[in-house]
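<instruction>
Derive structure tokens from the sequence
<entry> Chain with its tokenised backbone below:
===
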Amino acid sequence: MYTSFLADPTWERLGFSTPPDETRAGEGIGVVITDTVINHPTIKHLAGRLKRVTVNDDMSVACRDVVLEEQQEEVPYPNIAEHGMVSLFLLSHLPFELEGKKYVGLVPQATFIMVDHHDPFRLKKAMEWIIERQEIWNVQIVINFLVVGGDLSIRPTCEEPIVQAMMPAIEAGLLVIQANGNSPAINNNSPMEFFAVGGYDDGGLKSNSKKIHPLSSKGINGDGHLRPDILAPFTYLPTPYYDCSKTDLYTPYSNHTKTDMKLSYFGGTCGTATLIGGVCAYILSQYPDISLDSLRSALVHLGTPLGETEHTAPTVDVAKTINVIQKGDPIPPLPSNAKENIIGDVGSDIYSKNEIKRGIALTKLIEQKNITREELWNFVDDPSPYVQKVAIWGLHKPINIDERELSWGYFSNSRSDVLGVREAWAYMLLFGANKEELDRWMQFVTDLSADVRHCVNYYLKKYYPDAPGLVHTPDTNTEVIQKIAAPVLQWYMYFSNKGKFN
């Protein structure tokens, strides 16, 4: 699906007063990114400044220059590198103009060190190796796309393997910028040591009003802290086109009546974390004397409140932040990262008034198999959405018809909110779904929740592979959602009528 909608450049939407200078922006700053890249024609200018760090089976570490040492790929480019390439493009691509708008990467003169290991042990080894050579590349920033937790359980963040893998960077004083997650159903979030980034919805245009994106994960982590710290644009992040045979991105820009050029559109909190990483690298290259703690504080304190709730993180405002740094105005520190004493006795904490303590205790009881299924069902009515999601995670899927009907009832009666209990029920129903539920699932083809539509699409792929795919979009515009759903609804109408006449 192609679109003729052209989003504004990211630098404008972030609040830059002028486009980043492609000859200076990011110069001298090393940025680590946990993703995969290839040698691509768009990044020739990064020769000598794009490294790939690999941990081998014997835990030895190798480092290669992607542009100078690896063969340049050709169309169609490998799908496995699409996510990492468009992330890199957001930061590094050289300027071009399209329909009177100037597009440029935020820090095309930075040095980039790519680490694509998902295994926490290898990731930690790679981080230790990079930190030993921190001065060679002046590594200041780590952009981490591996989501902390990522499921419906909740536990102290220090127990999360991805947090443990990133601790060498934290202990070395680097700024770890964390993608906070793309589903309200996610229960645990990153620790306060990480600069957690969520997303706002501006529809791709600077002039639009902003609101927190419903897919952007938010809430209290397993240490009792609210996350994320800051918000950046979540949708329609334009980059040079990445031409691969089966894209995982959505609605690339194409308008053959005006230009032969296409753009890829990135999104999600991997996109927002990339943007904030670019902002930080840009400011550090312009004002090298600012400390990483002061930079983080400035971005948070000088961001623009959305005003949705008192706990909503601010949206980034680059121009305002740079203005204060330039003038040398004092920047107040962020609150202390001191953790509450959340860990206690599982037996007593399950009855605690503290919802996070109850959630941690319930997680441990489930993992230890010290709770019955009947007791778990009682916890889906807990007053805390965090505890409800842990209980749903523990149940995993309905085990009989009665439980399945009960689960459909909970799903139908769950109200939409930013904490994702309704989405948690949708995923539970997807586990163990059956082919006879088509009519039920088809009611949610145009649901406003992208998680729920994802469940519908997965259901159709499994049980009705001849049905058209329900293309993923994080766009919250109902007209866009209905347009994407139209082929699926047409198939359903034909399928249903055919069944009646056979």
Notes: The first strand starts at residue 30 and ends at 33. Residues 226 and 310 are 11 Å apart (CA to CA).
